[in-house]
Each structure stands twice: as C-alpha cells, then as structure tokens.
Write a structure and sequence with these properties.
two-stranded antiparallel sheet
C-alpha cells in the first residue's frame, strides 16, 4: 500500500489503508469483541451485497450461531454527523440483511437500534451481549 499508513483488519485478515472511517471500523470491531463478547469468526467487515441493481458493502456484520446476520454496523468518519441520511443508509442496507439490531457510529457517537416484534426499530442504550443474541 504505497506510502500510506495501514492497519491489520483481523476480519479480512489483511492490511488495509488506515482511513478515518477504517479507524472507526477497527475500533468498533474491538468493542464488539471485548465489550459484547462477539468472537472474531462471527464477524465480517466490508460485506458485499446487492440492493436493487446496485452493489454495496456493509461495514460490519455480526452473524448468529445459525449464520444469519444479526447486527449491522455502519461506520462513518468522526467528522460525519450521524443524521437521518446515515440512519436511512443503514435502514436501506437492512432491507437486504434483515437484522434484529443496527448500529451507526462515527467513533464519537454511537446509536443502536432494535427491531420490535411488529418490525419497527427503536433506539436502545446498547446492543446485547453476543451470548444473548438469537
């Protein structure tokens, strides 16, 4: 990676360019592992998927024991305001992934949402521990 700083992404198992967004992504991967008990092998970063006829990449996906996606994390650079546009991006991605939990973070602020039985999402204080995710 010519000239730029890099960081090892433990999920992709390779060195990646250390952009501000990548720094947030790697911080949140560590948080998922250390605070929420998510094993590295149950997470993926830069997960490709198609929505309509466009190709996208989810920043982080946490997989359940049944290998279905359980948590979608959208990471932004610290200077990006976590507004309706960012939330809308996560909601759009979730139309494909259909996870029970969504997180948006810029490393300075983090918002978590949980899906209710009726399918609506509401803000929650924290995502649950990995051992409690069904």
């Amino acid at each position: 990676m010519a000239g730029g700083k890099t960081i090892r992404d433990p999920l992709r198992k390779k060195e990646v360019v250390l952009t501000p967004e990548e720094q947030v992504r790697q911080w949140f991967i560590g948080l998922l592992k250390d605070r929420y008990g998510v094993p590295e092998h149950m997470m993926s970063s830069e997960v490709p998927f198609t929505f309509g006829n466009k190709h996208y990449r989810a920043d982080i996906v946490v997989w359940g024991r049944d290998l279905a996606p359980r948590i979608l994390v959208e990471c932004k650079r610290p200077e990006v305001t976590l507004d309706e546009k960012v939330l809308s991006q996560a909601v759009d991605y979730n139309r494909v992934l259909d996870v029970p939990y969504m997180v948006i973070t810029n490393g300075l602020k983090t918002y978590a949402l949980s899906r209710a039985d009726n399918g609506d999402y509401s803000f929650i204080q924290e995502i649950p521990q990995f051992s409690l995710i069904r």
